[in-house]
Design goal:
By secondary structure, the chain is an alpha+beta fold. It has 4 helices and 8 strands. The protein is about 30% helix and about 35% strand. A hairpin with a 2-residue loop joins strand 6 and strand 7. The radius of gyration is 15 Å and the shape is globular.
Length: about 140
């Protein structure tokens, strides 16, 4: 059993989540035109459920790609570790909520997809260029 976080993030994320739900997945501002996904992830250490809005790349057949860029940070975002520990998660896309399995891509799978993601979202390439860590890429595959 998970415990929901009483305040699971910044006011910025809370505003995005509220707008996302009010407008069935569409938001304005810097996220206008970007496909957003809300991921529900369980804290690897805390067991607390959190909700995080992320840009995603729909890949068809119930698959979505998310990237753990965390801007130009030298460390992975916290949700990265949560997905590694608990890869079966719930997501919201548009007005739908469903379960996905999060699989971190490596090797040829990541290498083949990365240029396409950078072409779609050029800031990903900028973020990668400004950090020494390899930015993780996850494929989320719908399970239900």
């Amino acid at each position: 059993m998970t415990k929901p976080a009483p305040d699971d993030g910044s006011d910025y994320n809370a505003k995005i989540i509220k707008e996302f739900r009010a407008k069935q997945g569409r938001v304005g501002g810097p996220w206008a035109g970007t496909t957003l996904i809300l991921i529900y992830h369980i804290g690897a250490r805390s067991g607390v459920e959190r909700v995080t809005p992320l840009g995603c790349s729909p890949r068809g057949d119930g698959r979505f790609v998310i990237v753990a860029s965390s801007g130009e940070s030298p460390t992975h975002p916290e949700w990265y570790y949560n997905l590694k520990a608990n890869p079966r998660i719930t997501v919201e896309v548009g007005a739908q909520t469903f379960t996905v399995l999060a699989d971190e891509l490596a090797g040829a799978a990541r290498a083949g997809l990365w240029p396409k993601l950078v072409a779609e979202y050029p800031t990903l390439g900028e973020h990668q260029a400004k950090t020494t860590r390899q930015v993780p890429v996850f494929m989320l595959t719908r399970q239900d």
